[in-house]
């Protein structure tokens, strides 16, 4: 059965579509700015100083944070909550939905996170250090700030949403996992509208920089904009970034009923586990995850027009993913591969959702944005169809496949199609 045949047999209340996107990234605080930066080759990585680690590099988001949140609530809450509130509010606004009249008990919030609570705990320990570690100076806001559901909960509080809210801890596969959870809950009719994706406040914790540095996996370069360089032979690690990207997901039946502008349809997904190492990826399991997503969607590899790679800029991670991709797409002549981390660094929990968003406009303009900073392509990363340094116009873009992998061997794939 072809995908077209399968789709025609699915009822509209089992088909899930994207009707709104809200985001903040190091090189743009909405989809239009983000896409423009990607097509122009504009990096968002800059010099950055973090406590105890000192001078380093990072992707920092700049947006009008008080547009949707009071300064008082920002002081009480977290940076993850702030970027999440921005993205969720922008996504709802851009969806065109009649938000004041939406039944908020039927809205679900599903937010992918890599980690949460480190920033707040580090800050509190640093503060009480000045008082000889007297814990009577410990903030009473610490517990609600550090519970794992905080980013989703802050969105719910801010927007008056009374339906289910929770976070999905899936390391750096979390952005995809948030989308997948939203799709599943809509198909189960657990909600009528899902706010799904991923958020990250990771640049505000020195621990993540220190750990990557001790691992020999923290990127460095005299020019910050060239530090994140997946697939390049001289790549030397990860640029840590913050960000958020959240989607309004709806059942097709509901989107049609309100004549919504449909951006794309989520047609398939998969999550699996390497079960082989804490950090090192397993290309066999990654290939299995991609193949599982294809088979679930009744698709073959040559249906895919663009593959958004996970590649972080580490020597082993990039080459291992390329082994998996060659395994799956070796006979596909027209496919294109690109990478978004080369522009913004690694936004951890938000990475997968942001990387998908940056490619979605390709359905309209048929342009595949490039992977930048590839001056000397590593032969182990020489994928046929890898778009390097300059965007490419394609004859068609009907399917986009988004790879997103994480520590402890979690792999995720989301496939979307032009509606």
Your description of this structure?
This protein has 419 residues and is an alpha/beta fold. It has two domains: 16-257, 3-Layer(aba) Sandwich (Peroxisomal Thiolase, Chain A, domain 1), CATH 3.40.47; 268-417, 3-Layer(aba) Sandwich (Peroxisomal Thiolase, Chain A, domain 1), CATH 3.40.47.10. Helices cover 34% and strands 21% of the residues. The strands form three sheets. A ten-stranded mixed sheet has the order 5-4-6-8-1-9-15-14-10-11, sandwiched between helices. A three-stranded mixed sheet has the order 2-3-7. Strands 12-13 form a two-stranded antiparallel sheet. The longest helix has 17 residues, at 79-95. It is globular and about 65 Å long. The two termini are 19 Å apart. The mean pLDDT is 97.
User: What structural class is derived from the secondary structure elements?
Assistant: alpha/beta
As laid out across the biggest beta sheet, the strand order is 5-4-6-8-1-9-15-14-10-11
How far apart are the first and last residues' alpha carbons, in Å? 19 Å
Q: In CATH's first tier, which class of the largest domain applies?
A: Alpha Beta
SSE layout and pairing:
Blueprint: H1 3-9, E1 16-24, H2 31-40, E2 45-50, E3 54-59, H3 71-76, H4 79-95, E4 107-113, H5 118-129, H6 142-146, H7 150-159, E5 165-169, H8 174-187, E6 193-200, H9 206-214, E7 240-241, E8 243-251, H10 252-257, E9 264-273, H11 283-296, E10 306-308, H12 315-329, E11 336-338, H13 341-344, H14 351-359, H15 362-365, E12 367-368, E13 392-393, E14 399-406, E15 410-417
Parallel strand pairs: 3-7, 4-5, 4-6, 10-11, 10-14
Antiparallel strand pairs: 1-8, 1-9, 2-3, 6-8, 9-15, 12-13, 14-15
